[in-house]
Amino acid sequence: MDKFTKNFLESEGIEVNSPEDVESDPYQKRRQKAAELKTYNTPSSFDKLKQFMELDRKVLRFFTVWDDRPSMFGQMRPFIIHYYLVDDTFEIREVREPNDGRDPFPVLIGRHKVPIDRYGVKSSFPGVVMELTAHEIKDYFTPKDFKIGQTVTIYGRRFLIYDVDNFTKAFYYQNFGITEFEPADVKGRAKDVPKMEIPPYNGFGSMEDSMQSCLSLIPQPPKKDFVKMLENDHKVLRFQAILDSVKPEDGGRKFIISYRLADDMMTIYESPVRNSGIIGGKFLERTRVAKPDCTTNQPSFYGPQELFIGAVIEVFKHRFIITNADEFVLKYMEEHSSQFPESTINSLRECFAGSQQTREVTKGGPMKVRRADGDLDRLVQEVQAQLKKISITGKNRIDDLFLKFDTDHSGYLDKEKLKYMCKQIQLPLDDDVMNALVTQFTTNREGKIFLEDFRIFFESS
Length: 461
Prior knowledge:
Elements: H1 3-11, H2 26-35, H3 48-55, E1 59-67, E2 76-84, E3 89-94, E4 107-112, E5 151-154, E6 157-164, H4 166-176, H5 207-215, H6 226-231, E7 236-244, E8 254-260, E9 265-270, E10 281-287, E11 312-315, E12 318-325, H7 327-335, H8 342-357, E13 360-362, E14 368-370, H9 376-389, H10 395-405, E15 412-413, H11 415-424, H12 431-441, E16 449-450, H13 451-459
Antiparallel strand pairs: 1-2, 1-6, 2-3, 3-4, 5-6, 7-8, 7-12, 8-9, 9-10, 11-12, 13-14, 15-16
């Protein structure tokens, strides 16, 4: 009501109430809102979709250390922070080191958005049982919070950033204009790590097998060169040697040293000698022989280059002097002359040249005859003595011997049959020796030895 009406009613004694608000009309409100000037908010140029399209698979990498040495049993442990630009999340991974004594759990903090101050949140209902949301936490870690030489506190742990990778350097240069990326020195005092001392070789088994017991808890067999084994299979270098000892009873002992090219192992065999008091036989099983001046950490083994005429090798505190070799040794060294010194090959050539000049012929018995020019008569006498030694007596036994070697029943023995007979009883087989024996058996120009000539020869011996 207006003022006049209000004054009139009060003059008549009527109490007038205070004015009341009129109920709004929803229709009128909608009309007014529709008639208002419309405004629009322009979206940001860097929205979520653009962030995904441009920053997907782009990760910042920070090298950090967590220095927990002030606490009991604490250590300085290296970690790597991976910051994912696509959604502003990061994870922290531990750098694994061999034999560090820790379980293999590389992820310390899983990938998620980490608040700067996790524990500085005001309490609100029902925050006791619900996860924190964007209403409680406003500040999260961003790339601006990570710099080289800066200490970042994440969930109560202090991480010192000491270096970044090349992609992170380029990102900071393009977006923040940072050009200084000098790595921080985080190396502390070096620990006195005890060195593994390898015990001396005890002589049991090979040196390589004993070394495997020191390198691992479960010993593994030493690795073999299978290509070398296939190329040098069944190739053995044989040398004759004598024992270099101060004991007089070891003066006449002779040994055969066999060197296997397939696995570089040696075998030593002692030739048995009757009435010497030494049994003989295998002196050393197949094994690799190390040089006396080598160490257990760096063993040095004998090779074929160290084996030559006159060489002295020490095998487990036994000294051997090489005096002779097999013809295959010289042939092999000449074929592989690039692998052997010239002095080694020359020593073998001189040895074989001297042996050809003075050939030594071994008879069936212990008697040995050294050949010389014009000494065939004496050699025939030695052969006759050797035949007498095998006790060929009696006419019947001589006839049986003749028939035994007369295999084609021709009634006579020629040079080849006589040579075969000498081979069976271990007599010399040289051509000049055979020719001299034929002349002693018969006067036949064709060299045919008949039964009667055979009897006369043995009866005259």
